[in-house]
């Protein structure tokens, strides 16, 4: 087929926005559509080659796979090879395990399936996957395996029938993508069944031009360019994709292929030396940019700056030029005499894949090769697994109602029953062990009962499908127990603001909690299906908080109300371990105290407005914020005091900051006369 300079320019138009999107340049919020343009180009070029060979009666599936192997695999293997020393030096064990699995998946052409199962494309964790971008290569490789066979089988039916079959399959794939964008968004993004129509759109363009003279058309080609540019700047991470929203960039690419011939304004723009040059190295550029960005994030203790990302984007172009010239081109053009035949090329590819699969398997051994890490890093990471046993025993997650209360393991050691109960969600569960120990030492009874992802009252449901109606069942049972057992003091601890806002915590410094949005609403409003941003839902949830607290108080029950615990955003043991790997001495991580106050302002103001003689308050921020670092909420102090087991749940060390104030509040509520009681009563009220 004839070389078209404007197609290389179109490649540049695809790869540049992708890189700038991954560099988090806000203007390029829809830059991910560059991948869809690549799919169209691939479909067009591959189909054009197959049609040309079929019409000449010389198409060979073996030669076809040889050409694809020459084009794709050498530089891909080279980039993976270059990643290995940085992975060894900088990756945490879990990251190394994920990296090992991704190497295996890449070599088996199934990385799209792996990343679908492991993480969402737009999730924070995905940004630290050096091979995340290979999902699109896997989709193309799956297309390369299947599509030529379909052409060979259906060629005998004639061009018209073949085009009709491709068009029908493309339409079905598009409709499935639209349906999937609503009902199974993550799978929809990665799977070939919902991406096939984009490749097949390019295939249809190839059939449309096959045997015909291309007709230049400035209006249609400019319209195509406008559709692409619109998508790049108008779309963002919230745009359902792929779906009907993918039509503009796909149609835009097709219009340029069909009508952007030499002589048109679009062709002149895309055929400039710079655009063609970037287009020629676009595959290598695409391969390089994600590892550079991922390892920058892995190495940095905070989110890299825009300047760093732009520098790395430029570096990806430089590296791409050298890998294109010295790796990609020699293999693709057949200059390597040892790989002069299809069997040799395919055999070498299989051997290379086998070697990298072996490396991938090794990376998943020994807890992600944890022995690589310094002792301080291993000690920090141990905090993630060192959650208190009470979290396993006293934190429920299946909506259990018919519990035989009291559960002995959830009582203080000296008790057979308790008039004080700690209830709430997993934050209550996280401090339960430390609370039980401190209450026991103070010779006070305590019973701890909590449930994951639930407001600590009946009458609520949450948006998470797993926990949706479990909360009401569990806390109905707890409230029945409180009424019938003589409990006179209830300690309430929840992520109060989370169930109103619904979103995980972003500390603004690169620490973004990995959390599928989860928000609460009242059971009587379940049929309304209010979304996370519904202001009426937020208002009635907060109002119900206050009414349920008041209901306890009005019956004579004393309430110790624990305000929101400061969240970290980043996984604290992970960032402390990264600091150890970087050689830091006694690192301290912290987050903005102002950001804590902003996130929890609504709940804090509402709680502050409550007045009742039986109400006692505990404000964890007093122990985390403006203590070690001014205007900051501390996450750890060196390697010995790590206050969280993840991005938001307090560790035993974190719980030890909060529990004494809870203990003092309970003592004050009982009219204790020890030396700390007056202070406790003053603070609590």
From TrEMBL:
Question: Any keyword tRNA-binding?
Answer: no
Which Gene Ontology cellular component terms are annotated? membrane
Task: Cite the GO molecular-function annotations of the record.
Answer: acyltransferase activity, transferring groups other than amino-acyl groups
Which Gene Ontology terms describe the biological processes this protein takes part in? lipopolysaccharide biosynthetic process
Q: Which residues cross the membrane?
A: 7-25, 31-51, 72-92, 98-116, 161-182, 194-211, 218-235, 241-259, 266-286, 306-324, 345-363
Please tell me whether the keyword Magnesium is annotated for this protein.
Answer: no
Q: Which residues form the Acyltransferase domain?
A: 6-323
Where in the numbering of this chain does the SGNH domain appear?
A: 405-663
Highest rank taxon of the organism: Bacteria
Q: Which UniProt keywords apply?
A: Membrane, Transmembrane, Transmembrane helix
Name of the protein: Acyltransferase
Q: Species lineage, top-down?
A: Bacteria, Pseudomonadati, Pseudomonadota, Alphaproteobacteria, Hyphomicrobiales
């Amino acid at each position: 087929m004839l070389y078209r300079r404007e197609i290389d320019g179109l490649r540049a138009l695809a790869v540049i926005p992708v890189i700038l999107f991954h560099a988090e340049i806000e203007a390029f919020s829809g830059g991910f559509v560059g991948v869809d343009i690549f799919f169209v180009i691939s479909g067009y070029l591959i189909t054009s080659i197959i049609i040309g060979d079929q019409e000449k009666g010389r198409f060979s599936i073996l030669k076809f796979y040889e050409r694809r192997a020459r084009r794709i695999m050498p530089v891909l293997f080279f980039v993976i090879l270059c990643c290995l020393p940085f992975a060894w030096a900088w990756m945490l064990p879990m990251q190394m395990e994920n990296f090992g699995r991704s190497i295996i998946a890449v070599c088996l052409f199934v990385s799209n399936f792996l990343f679908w199962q492991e993480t969402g494309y737009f999730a924070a964790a995905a940004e630290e996957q050096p091979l995340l971008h290979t999902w699109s290569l896997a989709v193309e490789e799956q297309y390369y395996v299947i599509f030529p066979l379909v052409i060979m089988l259906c060629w005998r039916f004639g061009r018209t029938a073949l085009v009709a079959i491709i068009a029908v399959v493309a339409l079905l794939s598009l409709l499935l993508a639209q349906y999937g964008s609503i009902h199974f968004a993550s799978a929809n993004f990665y799977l070939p069944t919902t991406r096939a129509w984009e490749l097949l759109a390019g295939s249809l363009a190839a059939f449309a031009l096959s045997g015909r003279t291309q007709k230049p058309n400035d209006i249609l080609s400019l319209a195509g360019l406008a559709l692409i540019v619109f998508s790049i700047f108008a779309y963002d991470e919230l745009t359902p994709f792929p779906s009907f929203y993918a039509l503009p960039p796909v149609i835009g690419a097709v219009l340029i292929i069909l009508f952007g011939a030499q002589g048109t304004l679009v062709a002149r723009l895309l055929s400039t030396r710079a655009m063609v040059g970037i287009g020629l190295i676009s595959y290598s550029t695409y391969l390089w940019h994600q590892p550079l960005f991922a390892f920058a994030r892995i190495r940095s203790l905070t989110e890299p700056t825009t300047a760093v990302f732009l520098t790395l984007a430029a570096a990806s172009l430089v590296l791409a030029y050298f890998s294109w010239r010295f790796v990609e081109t020699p293999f693709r053009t057949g200059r390597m005499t040892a790989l002069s035949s299809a069997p040799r090329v395919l055999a070498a590819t299989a051997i290379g894949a086998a070697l990298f699969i072996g490396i991938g398997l090794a990376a998943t051994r020994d807890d992600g090769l944890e022995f690589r890490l310094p002792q301080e890093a291993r000690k920090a990471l141990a905090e993630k697994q060192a959650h208190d046993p009470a979290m396993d025993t006293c934190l429920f997650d299946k909506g259990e109602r018919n519990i035989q209360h009291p559960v002995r393991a959830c009582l203080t050691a000296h008790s057979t029953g308790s008039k004080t109960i700690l209830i709430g969600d997993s934050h209550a569960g996280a401090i339960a062990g430390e609370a039980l120990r401190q209450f026991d030492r103070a010779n006070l009874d305590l019973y701890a009962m909590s449930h994951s992802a639930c407001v600590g009252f009946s009458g609520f449901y949450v948006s998470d499908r797993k926990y949706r109606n479990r909360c009401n069942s569990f806390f109905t049972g707890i409230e029945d127990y409180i009424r019938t057992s003589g409990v006179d003091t209830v300690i309430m601890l929840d992520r109060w603001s989370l169930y109103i806002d619904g979103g995980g915590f972003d500390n603004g410094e690169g620490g973004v909690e990995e959390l599928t949005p989860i928000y609460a609403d009242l059971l009587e409003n379940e049929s309304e299906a209010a979304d996370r941003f519904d202001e009426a839902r937020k208002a009635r949830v907060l109002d119900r908080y206050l009414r349920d607290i008041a209901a306890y108080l009005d019956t004579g029950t004393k309430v110790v109300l624990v305000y929101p615990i400061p969240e970290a955003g980043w996984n604290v043991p992970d960032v402390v371990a990264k600091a150890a790997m970087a050689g830091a001495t006694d690192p301290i991580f912290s987050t903005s105290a102002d950001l804590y106050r902003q996130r929890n302002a609504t709940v804090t103001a509402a709680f502050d407005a409550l007045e009742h003689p039986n109400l006692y308050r505990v404000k964890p921020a007093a122990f985390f914020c403006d203590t070690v670092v001014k205007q900051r909420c501390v996450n750890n102090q060196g390697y010995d005091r790590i206050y969280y087991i993840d991005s938001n749940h307090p560790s035993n060390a974190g719980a030890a900051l909060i529990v004494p104030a809870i203990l003092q509040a309970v003592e004050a509520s009982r009219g204790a006369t020890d030396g700390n009681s007056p202070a406790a009563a003053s603070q609590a009220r």
